[in-house]
Amino acid sequence: MKIAVLDINGKDTGRQAELSKDVFAIEPNNHAVYLDVKQFLANQRQGTHKAKERAEISGSTRKIKKQKGTGTARAGSIKSGVFRGGGRMFGPRPRNYGFKLNKNLKRLARRSALSIKANDKSILVLEDFSFEAPKTKNFLNVLKALEVENKKSLIVLGGTNNNVYLSSRNFKGSEVITASELSTYKIMNANKVILIESALEGIESNLSK
Asked: pLDDT tens, 9-42?
């Protein structure tokens, strides 16, 4: 599967990159994509929610009224959840929402996500580039040249490039990551996935195992 390599001005360089069929052209497994995205979102949850239960609030321990003869329900504590100011019944407790998925399923999910984007023609390959210094304007010019300045975009670098990364931080709709940070959620969340040419080898070697 071949795709044209563009430069930072959005022009065709005349070269083509070979995309592995085993990574970019498989039959997508939608359930694997669902599970991997679900795990990613679950891991973002802090799980620090907490409400005080009846054993944790301040209040008298005396029996608030006699057991019989009042014509109403029995009551032994003002801290009961049925009373105003009482403890929360079955309230939220701190917990970890994360769950495990095996590596093969996660690789399948990422291959499926990339195949979906490739099938939708939502993947671009860009030749390697860098900036002399972090500058937002330079990064914006690249987005404009690729016609993605008003879309959610994911730029995948072959390795760490601080100048490109720092130049991108002011754009909420654009994210710059390295090939090792690639996740199913980030792929599916982007309208356009822009792969830097040097990132292709790392992506294919990681996902072809």
From this structure: 989 888 999 999 999 999 999 999 999 999 999 9
CB atoms within 10 A of CB 44: 10
- Domain spans of the chain, in order of start: 2-45+100-207, 48-96
Q: CA triplet 149, 41, 200: central angle to 5 degrees?
A: 55
Order across the sheet with 174-178: list the strands: 12-18, 2-6, 123-126, 192-196, 153-157, 174-178
**CATH code given to domain 2-45+100-207:** 3.40.1370.10
Give me the helix-helix angle, 103-119 and 30-44, nearest 10°. 110
184, 164 Cβ separation under 8 angstroms: no
What would the two tokens of residue 84 be? 């105003």
